[in-house]
Amino acid sequence: MRVFFALVLSALSLMAEFEVSGHLDLDSQLYLSAPDSKHKNNFTAKQTLDLKYFHDDLSIYAKLYAQEDYYDFTTNDDNKRTFARVDELFLKYEFTNDALYVGKSIKFWGALELRNIVDGFNPDDFRSDMFDADKLGVWNLTYSHYTDAGEFSLILKVHEQEQKMPGFPYVYYFLPENVSYRDTLNTSDGEYRPSVYLMYSGSTDTEYALDYAFIYENGYDSQRYFTTNATPITAPTKFELNAVVVNKFMTYNTLVIDSTLIKLEALYAKVDENKYVGDYSHLAFGVEHSLDDFENGATLGLIAEYYSYQTYDSKKYSDLELFETMQNDIFLGARYTFNNDSDTAIVGGVVADLEYNEETYYAQFESRVFDEYKIAFDYYYINPSTTDKTAYALLGKHQRVALNVAWHF
Question: Which domains does the chain have, with CATH numbers?
């Protein structure tokens, strides 16, 4: 019997290929400016495990994630940021010019540096660092057809993922102290009402390289909204998260002209009849120019981006009530890439809100050490609006430094 199993395992190893990779992270943040009622620092351990299986035209991919927050084990003021989850678990089967994906996955859409406004297929996890988007996997069925010029995809999302909230002591819990949050997502047409996406992406083989993508969605919008059982807010108050059905048109594009990269993202959402949310549009335009005439081979990228958000029904939620932070903002920044064996890079800049008079300053540094280790530093300073209740005004004046050390295997 043992000989039989040994032969079976040997046969499988010859017919298929397994890959195991991942990383272990230690995150630390020190909040130099934060509300007195919040923790002044934070320490988090994170584990990510990627599993891949290949056999002929079939592949299976799984991504497992877990994290542990220091305060969840040492004090009564829990951050409620300790959990484990399956981010991705899907099967892919490839044909000659087609591919079929079935399962839970994360898709990335977008082109800009600061924020990808069309990247709404997967919701964010509210328990993550607000400056490091952490996407939740969603169950879907995707069929893709490949042509010489591009790719056509039909995507059926079959479930809307709920978004859990951290505990109040965590600095990025953005609701007031007298508010409780209900984890269950309210959906206008039921939790399992499918969302359908049609997507075409491609590129041109000309002097100026153009990459483009167009997406149409009929289903639940990525822009969710809060409702409460008390107006005005009085204790006890419960906030609930809601999703509404839309017909949504999205595009993201990049155009390379010599050393200049031009970026465009845009969307328009036609919202099904809803008491709180009306039709809206979001536009983002960016330019990045690279300078690489340095003796050490480094590259300096100069970045400028503008974001505009517009609602079309003054009787419904405005950008403030939807917690939209990029409604009339300009970003000016730079990226310095050393082009060395350690992949060292520095990026930073300032985001200025032209409507509510608030600014965000940030700088990030990343580098590899001994191939298997990666270190990252960042600094953020938010000077919020003093006249309007923006999302950053609810957070308050904020200043932080952070360090991440990761071991990759």
Answer: 17-408 (2.40.160.10)
- What are the C-alpha distances in Å from 396 to residues 34, 105, 175, 348, 362? 7, 35, 12, 21, 16
Backbone angles phi, psi at 220, to 5 degrees: -75, 135
pTM of the model: 0.90
* Angle, alpha carbons 279-280-284 (nearest 5°): 160
Decide: 351 and 333 in contact? Cβ < 8 Å: no
Name which of 333, 388, 329, 320 is nearest 364 in CA terms: 333
Residue 193's pLDDT is 94
Residue with tokens 């079939």: 58
Which residue from 121, 33, 125, 116 is spatially nearest to 331, judged by alpha carbons? 116
**Residues contacting 276, CB < 8 A, separation 6+:** 225, 227, 242, 316, 317
Yes or no: say if 56 and 70 are a contact pair by the CB < 8 Å rule.
no
DSSP 161: P
What string of H, E and C letters represents the secondary structure of 175-189? Answer: CCCCEEEEEEEEECC
Contact 281, 270 (CB under 8 A): no
Tell me which residue has tokens 């981006």.
305
Mean pLDDT by 10 residues, the chain (409 residues): 50 71 97 93 97 96 98 91 97 97 98 97 94 92 95 97 93 85 90 94 91 98 88 68 97 97 98 96 98 87 98 96 96 95 95 97 96 96 95 93 98
